[in-house]
Structure formats: C-alpha cells, structure tokens
TrEMBL record:
<keyword id="KW-0238">DNA-binding</keyword>
<keyword id="KW-0175">Coiled coil</keyword>
<keyword id="KW-0963">Cytoplasm</keyword>
<dbReference type="InterPro" id="IPR036894">
    <property type="entry name" value="YbaB-like_sf"/>
</dbReference>
<comment type="function">
    <text>Binds to DNA and alters its conformation. May be involved in regulation of gene expression, nucleoid organization and DNA protection.</text>
</comment>
<dbReference type="Pfam" id="PF02575">
    <property type="entry name" value="YbaB_DNA_bd"/>
</dbReference>
<dbReference type="InterPro" id="IPR004401">
    <property type="entry name" value="YbaB/EbfC"/>
</dbReference>
<protein>
    <recommendedName>
        <fullName>Nucleoid-associated protein GCM10022271_24090</fullName>
    </recommendedName>
</protein>
<comment type="similarity">
    <text>Belongs to the YbaB/EbfC family.</text>
</comment>
<feature type="coiled-coil region">
    <location>
        <begin position="5"/>
        <end position="32"/>
    </location>
</feature>
<comment type="subunit">
    <text>Homodimer.</text>
</comment>
Length: 107
C-alpha cells in the first residue's frame, strides 16, 4: 500500500515539475492578434504578458476609436493565449496524473 502511495506521490511531484517547466516555456510562445482591418496589432505570450503593440497613425487621431480597438483586440488576444495556456497545462497535468479511482477530472 505504501509503495503505491509513494509511487503516486513521486509521479505527482514529477508532474508538478513538468507543469512549472511548461509555464516557463509558455513565456516564449507568442500569440499575434490584429484588429479586423489591421490597424492595431498586439503580440503577447501564452502566459498573457503583452510584448508588443503596433498602432496605425490613423487611430491616434481618435481617442475613443483607439480605446475601442484596444479593448476588442486585447480581449481576442487574451482569449487565444488563455486557450493555448490551458490546453498545454491540461495536457501535461493529464499525462502525469496517477490512476486514482474516482479522480478522473483530467480525462
């Protein structure tokens, strides 16, 4: 019994380490998003850190329009980054989970 428990604990620690490594790697995965007309371009990491924003000069003339573009485009970029992040983390967590009866939440 204790051998199984120790094996499961070891596998959980290994999985935790892999999850942390995956989180670090996601800092290097870049997500590019642009407004529909290409006047605003945003790059962020899969961990949702903004790396770059490019704004067309035309948008600088209208503060309200620029704010709308920022909200819409940032939300799209964050949603894409979140999807990549959650998919990657879930894959690592699922792969590393020991087979514990009743604990199939990652399957």
């Amino acid at each position: 019994m204790f051998g199984d428990l120790m094996g499961m604990m070891g596998k959980l620690k290994e999985t935790q380490k892999k999850v942390e490594e995956t989180k670090k790697r996601l800092d290097t995965v870049l997500i590019d998003e642009a407004s529909n007309d290409g006047k605003l371009k945003i790059t962020l990491t899969a961990n949702r850190a903004i790396k770059n924003i490019e704004i067309d000069n035309e948008l600088l003339e209208d503060k309200e329009q620029l704010e709308d573009y920022l909200v819409l485009t940032l939300n799209k970029a964050i949603a894409r980054a979140t999807q990549v992040n959650e998919t990657e983390i879930a894959a690592v967590a699922k792969d590393g989970m020991p087979n514990i009866p009743g604990m199939d939440m990652f399957k």
